[in-house]
Amino acid sequence: xxxxxxxxxxxxxxxxxxxxxxxxxxxxxxxxxxxxxxxxxxxxxxxxxxxx
Length: 52
Known about the structure:
It is built from 3 helices and no strands. By secondary structure, the protein is mainly alpha-helical. The radius of gyration is 12 Å and the shape is flat.
């Protein structure tokens, strides 16, 4: 988890790090994604796992 002040580059930093490491970046800003993670964590991880 990354916390900090608004609009200082937290999401941008994580997107760049994820891309460099071939990892998946998922934002919890979308209510549907957030709800899926909360109600069905197994399906959330199955849906958003990286596909190598």
